[in-house]
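We modelled the chain as a single entity of 705 amino acids. Its sequence is:
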Amino acid sequence: MAVFVGAHAAHAQEAKTTEQDKKPRVTVLQRLVVSAGVAKVAIDTPQAVTVVEQEDIDRLQPETIGEIIRATPGVNVTGSDRLLGQSFNIRGIGAPENTGDGGRIIVNVDGAQKFYEQYRLGSFFSDPELYKRVEVLRGPASSTLYGSGALGGVINFETKDASDFIAEGQTGALRLKSSWNSNGNGYLVNSVLAQRLGDNAEFLLTGNYRASDPYESGNGKEVIGTNFKAWSGLAKGTFNVGDEGKLRLSYQQWDSALEDQQLSQTSAAAFFGLIDRHIIDRTAVASYENPFSDNDMLDVKVSASYSNAYNEQRNADLRNPGPGNPGCGTGSFAVVCDSNYGYETWQFNAQNTMEWAGDNWENHLTVGSQSSYQTRKAEAFRNDGTQFPVTFHPQGTDLKTGVFVQNEFVWDDRLTVIPGMRLDWHKLTPDDALNAPSSDDTAFSPKIAAHYKINDTFAVFGSIAHTERFPTIDEVFSTASSSSTFLPSLGLRKEQSNNFEAGFALSGFDLAQAGDSGQVKVTGFYNDVKDLIALNRPFLPGFNNKQGFTNIDQAEIYGFEIEAAYDSDYVFANAAYSYVVGKNKLTDAYLTTVAPHELALTLGGKLPDYDLSFGWKARIVAGPQDAARDGTSAPVSDPTSTRFAKAFNTHDIFVTWKPQDGQLAGWEANFGVDNIFNKQYKEFLMNDDAKGRTFKVSLSKQFGW
């Protein structure tokens, strides 16, 4: 790809169109990024950014959120492929065992931060069918806008709008969709109703029901506990206010109620037995934005949100005492008791961007604030009905408020310099039953990033950022996990990191034929982390006279990512390679949260006359960095861990048919086969075997009026 780009530098230009349709060629590296500051295309951002759009989601036919981001370089899903067992990992940051990843990786839904942590459960509960776009901002450069501790990065989910379905000249639309996959006999039923009322209001109402039996791995073995059923819905209204103002009101809910479900959703630890579990996740957002085009000093965005994730667990197998089982009587084994858990978060965001411009320069200054109040809830009940505290899920509140400023200076449309800084304050207040003091602290996160276009073909970029992450309620006040107990971690220090990124980008047009486009982006990074918070393993059964969490004095995470993209009238291709290494600098031991090196490839074709596109995808994954984790056994220091794997490669195919004109317009069909060769494998950051061969098909029809 780089050879083609360099060889055709003379033909490079800012945008090219095909002779056929005069529409600009837009590869995945030319997609617009809207959540990193002033909107710009991905290849021109001085950080690693991936944008997943509606066409990608439709082609993937994802059953879980994790499938949307799996091919993003440096990004992985941790825990399991179960609907309730998934968390995110970016560049070695994130794992189900790390309860503070809500601060290291910030997940937003329409601007509302989402965070959930519970023993042997995932951290994000939602359905892929609710979203039209996902932006993944890798690394700490986004900490200015989203949180001082965002060492891993930010994942922004954007829900669908009525205008995404209403065609020009029409006022309403109804879309009906269903999908099915062979591995687990999984299916989805979806409906979308969109209606525009006059010139100033539109409404969207969508509902989904998704269910599956347990899936099978490549060797034909059923992976127990992977069955699920869940419904979800979104109601959204968009209103024009004045000349340019836009008000959005939305509410979404995800609901899963299952009997006899595996208690452990993040591992194959079947000894925990079964439980009845009901999880409801709610998100409500009210936002207003106005660019005030006639006033350079105003470009306002304000939002208020409410998030509530609630889990009710009942009737565990191990609730009643038995041989070697303390059950849920006196001296209860709380994890199997009837219990309720939850996170409730109120949040308010406000920012304004001011603009100045000259003959060959422009400047955008953004100032803003974010405040949130989060309550962590837990209650458990013994067999006699008495309530007692859940020491592995301590209750408390987390109050945060932060202010930030980010400036973006552009000179001659070539040099972009982006300095920024953020100051956060938080206060942790434990529940009275914990008999522990509250604590408060401040965190400061400055950064500077720059991007320079040497010419229309070649550009270089880099950034320096400092992050500081507060300990969470769980990290500070938790005193138990499974059969072990330990001391609260009242002396935890906040994590601090100094982070460096540098890279270059190549762009070219008219490479192999008129109107085609190709880009390459290479990003190298180094994170020097001080006081990294981690579980104070190993734990032995019974009382461990030590803190449950500790600070690792010095750790480092480094590596590089390569992204390449090509698009033409009949052929498209994408490639992504990630190489990440993480170590404890004092012991030289590998961090167990860093996924092996990976290469993801996509090669596709298009038949415009028949409204068809098709292609092949592959993931080629290396073995673990630590040779002791090659799949033969778990480390002796952690006998319950399955954090091991072997090198593997998988191959998928896909076909999409979407008629644009004629009587068949409005129909869309997607067909795919994942893991064509039925490979038996396990992801390093997951504790279950992965899915075997899976046939997928989806069909939708849209009606308009």
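As a brief sanity check on the tokenised model: The helical segments are 2-7, 54-60, 66-69, 101-104, 143-146, 473-477. The chain is about 5% helix and 55% strand.
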